[in-house]
Amino acid sequence: MWEMKHILGLRQMSRNEMEDIFRETYLMRELFRSRQKSSLLAGLVVVNAFFENSTRTRISFEIAAKRLGADVVNFGAAGSSLAKGESLEDTVLNLEALGADALVLRHSSPDSADTVSRMLRVPVLNGGAGSEEHPSQALLDIFTMRDRLGDLSGKKVVIVGDIAHSRVAKSNLYGLQKLGAEVVFCGPEKLLPREYELLGARVEYDLPRALCGAHAVMALRIQFERQSATYIDDLNEYRNGYQINGEKLRFARPDAMVMHPGPINRDVEIASETADSRQSVILEQVENGVAIRMSLLKLVLHDRRGVLSCRTAV
Ligand code: NCD
User: Fold this and answer.
1) What average pLDDT does the segment 3-32 reach?
2) How much is the pLDDT for 311?
3) Closest ligand 1 atom, residue 106 Cα
4) Phi, psi at 263, each rounded to 5°
5) Measured between alpha carbons, how far is 60 from 8 in angstroms, rounded to an integer?
């Protein structure tokens, strides 16, 4: 029986919980690929509250919820009462009063999902919180790695780029560590403080050395909206040092998987031909993302202890 009410981050998720999600995701991927619709969540309303830009995550949650029969309402800061000065707290309380059965939240504040989860009675799924956590993204990344590489224990995963501002890097680190993988962070010093070693990552400033023997290589976008560009003196220098391209990939295993959470800035953090190469699993990540989100929604809205008894009592 699934116990966890909210999906806030991988820091507090156990290995067993991740394994439960991955087992469910294989079933959900079959359902997704069959293009069939289930009625498991029929009558429930999932609200996507995205206060930062998003393409993949928002649409992925929307398609996932719809495939399971739920109704979806999309809500963003532009055009809402937030623009009139309403607080995040008041906004989400109103969304719950309007009948949301679950809230998917993306917000620039690192503790947004935690704060909102303490205020609402319905499940909150973190769709990206500041530079802190992005659990559904890391789960889809890790699922994609496991699907290809099998047991991740002892496997080397190198995450390259703007680590300091990346919620994807942190959530991946927390999750991958629990599965026994070796995680190497690589990037320029200004975007990768040495302190990340305290979280258990290996910190490496030299890309060829970092890539040596890598099973998976994940490129990260420079988070321009978090002022990351101010830490980079020269974009060409960044490209020379840290762009994932055919030349650099020669240092990794020949079959290393090339990953990226998107959105891609082609020919900045990843060479265009590398993003489209046979080694790239970028679109596979996107497909797996829908299946991951289907299983997260099913687990918190359908399988969770207490949910069914509440619903039949109504
Ligand atoms: C990431 C995010 O928003 O944190 N994208 C995503 O959700 N697929 C990474 C990014 O924006 O660079």
Assistant:
1) 98
2) 59
3) 3
4) -75, 145
5) 17
CA-nearest residue for atom 7, ligand 1, is 57
Full-model pTM? 0.96
pLDDT at 285 over 70: yes
Ligand 1 mutation pick, 50, 57, 170, 286, max ligand atoms within 8 A of CB: 57
Indicate the Cα dihedral angle 254, 257, 262, 264, nearest 10°.
10
The mean pLDDT value for 159-181 works out to: 98
Q: Which residues does 187 contact at the CB level (< 8 Å), separation at least 6?
A: 160, 161, 162, 163, 164, 205, 220, 242
Mutation pick for ligand 1 pocket among 10, 133, 134, 144 (CB with most ligand atoms within 8 Å): 134
Confidence of residue 230 (pLDDT cuts 50, 70, 90): confident
For residue 139, report the distance from its CA to the centre of ligand 1, in Å. Answer: 13
How many A from CA of 1 to the centre of ligand 1? 31
* pLDDT greater than 70 at residue 35: yes
Q: How far apart are CA 168 and CA 162, in angstroms?
A: 10
Q: What's the CA angle centered on 303, arms 302 and 309, to 5 degrees?
A: 75
